[in-house]
Amino acid sequence: MDITKIIIMAVLLLFSAFFSATETAFSSFNKTKMRTLAEKGNKKAVKVLKLSEKYDSLLSTILIGNNIVNIALSAICTVLFINIFKNHANGENIGTTVSTIVSTVAVLIVGEITPKSIAKEIPERFSMFSAPTISVLIIIFKPVSWFFRFTKIIFSKLFKSNDDRKMTQDELLTFVDEVEQEGGIDRSESELLRSAIEFTDREASDILTPRISVEAISEDLTNEEISRRFNESGYSRLPVYSGSIDSIVGIIHQKDFYSSVYGTDKTIKSIIKKPVYIPLSMKISDILKLLQKNKSHIAVVVDEYGGTMGIITMEDILEELVGEIWDEHDEVVEDFVKLDEQTYKVLCTMDLDKMFKYFDISDESDSATVGGWVLEKFGYFPKIGEEFEFANITVKVLDADDQRVNEITVTLRKEEEEEEKEKEIG
């Protein structure tokens, strides 16, 4: 009877929708949410996670089921419409054509587009809803599914791909940006994740305190002089050099100095701890491991000739992950100070990439700091008041000496000035 065929077609169409929605739900659900539900005792969530671990078997079952119901639907629909138009002169052709149109439209709208759109909106709920049924179907279709998986293995070996399927660092950073934009994490969490991802790429040259800024003491200083240096610097650890700062022989701790040396006839040689030496190109992740292994808080960065280029502390490394760490004795120094709507005061010891990002500019430079980049642009040691233009900014030296540039001002040029300058160049 035609009514029976219509009912069977409706049931098959529902199964087609079920398989299509299940495929979308299992490929879209949030694993973190599902694990959270599973940890709270949700049995369906546990089943979904187990099924997702065998995704090839799951996908084969879904595709087999979907194809079976769609083929059966098309066959029954053809028989139905041929019977309807059997009394017409060309009834078989008309019935076949009409059944093709009807079944195609029905499968597309009811069996594919609509269920997939719904499943995309509620992937966790639908995957948990469909998990029990799919688990049973996996067992039923296991022989057929095994055959298709075997065929897949053969073809994958014949057409082996050399593409690297691992997620790259850039892709991971893009993913973090997308999660932040969607509201999954806030800005501080996003910055922490970015720092952690980029952590392994950073080198000693990116975070070192240059030798000119290193507070170090000579091993020949008196105990009174060393005590004064501890008090003036505010540091709890100081590098000790022999002859010149290019020959750092160790590190002394303030607590050891006052408990074992100060007020006695002893010298600091008895409390000097052996320094950790590292090259400029060493990754900071490796430096952290080295400092942990040696139970040290300071590493001395040396050049190819063994001379001191600077130092890196454990705090410097941690700040790469979590941002600036201030204690009650630190003098708070801002990298950027806004002077007016267009002008900013910039500290030249700041990371160059940070300034480029802040002003949305870019340049190829071998320098790690703003000061180094400014010297590159001038080609000599500039005097206070000298300036140059780059991209849409004007850089002016605010504070400098014979050895380095300490502070600059960065002025954003207005659009009208840019247009006039372009005309002059033109």
Topology:
Layout: H1 2-28, H2 31-39, H3 43-53, H4 55-84, H5 91-121, H6 123-140, H7 142-158, H8 169-181, H9 187-198, H10 204-207, E1 209-210, E2 217-218, H11 223-233, E3 237-241, E4 248-253, H12 254-261, E5 276-279, H13 284-294, E6 298-302, E7 308-313, H14 314-322, E8 336-338, E9 343-347, H15 352-359, H16 370-378, E10 387-390, E11 393-400, E12 405-412, H17 415-425
Parallel strand pairs: 2-3, 5-6
Antiparallel strand pairs: 1-7, 3-4, 6-7, 8-9, 9-12, 10-11, 11-12
Share of helical residues: 55-70%
Termini Cα gap: 83 Å
* Structural class estimated from helices and strands: alpha+beta
Strand content: 5-15%
Strand order of the largest sheet: 8-9-12-11-10
Q: What letter string, H or E per element, gives the SSE order?
A: HHHHHHHHHHEEHEEHEHEEHEEHHEEEH
Question: What is the 3D shape?
Answer: elongated
